[in-house]
Amino acid sequence: MARREPLNREKVLDAALALADSEGLDGLTMRKLAKTLGVEAMALYNHVSNKADILDGIAERVMADIPSADPALPWAERVRTLALGMYRAYRVHPVVPLAMVSDQANPASPAALRPVEALAGAFVEAGFDDDGLRWAVGAVNSLVFGSLLLITSGFGTAPPGPEQLEPFAGVDPAELPHFSRLLGALRRLDPEKDFERALDVLIAGLEAAAAGKSPGGSTRR
User: Fold this and answer.
1) Which parts of this chain does the entry mark as a DNA-binding region (predicted)?
2) Lowest CB count within 10 Å: 35, 44, 101, 182, which one?
3) Cα torsion for 158, 163, 168, 174, to the nearest 10°?
4) How many domains does the chain have?
5) First-residue to last-residue Cα distance in the chain
């Protein structure tokens, strides 16, 4: 009989992320996780405190894998690199943004917060004051999380399909011509390309704000 390798925190989190990806947050239970690992549930508590600790751990793991942006790049290009990296990482593991927006995961380690630190640093370099920094970071997060919410069926495990448009099959184009046109466009959805286009528009607005060319409040120190 092959000797089982000893359990550790990394193995527990690996299994937890895989289980959450396949069965969602509700499907990630200590009992199911223990069964996946071939141990008793009590054995998990030698490596994790509870489910909240597990969710923090898998969120930290995904966030720590978001690619860094070259610090030599202009600030706007760094913002684009970081935002696109966040989008791609969270799209692979939609349970992570779901856990964060529902306040079930609050990873606070330096590894987890590195992407946010880099994003904030880019905006500080651009000259945003504290209020501008808050709404600039918030705008990027809103675009990332909002885009994921739409294209992952509410942070689900599968992208939306044509069946999601079926409830609108009876819409009369004569009565709602613009909405009908939008429905046709939605059938040609390209989530990542659409996200990149929206991100470029957002960054253009942030560049204008940093240069003092956009209306609405002070953005510079």
Assistant:
1) 29-48
2) 182
3) 110
4) 1
5) 67
Kindly report the pTM of this predicted structure: 0.86
Are the beta carbons of 24 and 156 closer than 8 angstroms? Answer: yes
**With contact defined as beta carbons under 8 Å apart, do 66 and 113 qualify?**
no
The CA distance from 100 to 105, in Å, is 5
**What are 178's two structure tokens?**
């613009």
- 24 within a domain of the structure (yes/no): yes
Contact 140, 119 (CB under 8 A): yes
Residue 200 in any domain: the answer is: yes
99: domain CATH number is: 1.10.357.10
CA 118 to chain centre: 16
Q: Is 60 part of a structural domain of the chain?
A: yes
Using CA of residue 169, residue 171, residue 174, residue 179, what is the dihedral sign? negative
Alpha-carbon separation of residue 15 from 12, 19, 44, 145, 153 (angstroms): 5, 6, 11, 25, 24
With respect to residue 216, please indicate whether it lies within any of the assigned structural domains: no
Domain that holds residue 199: 9-159+190-210
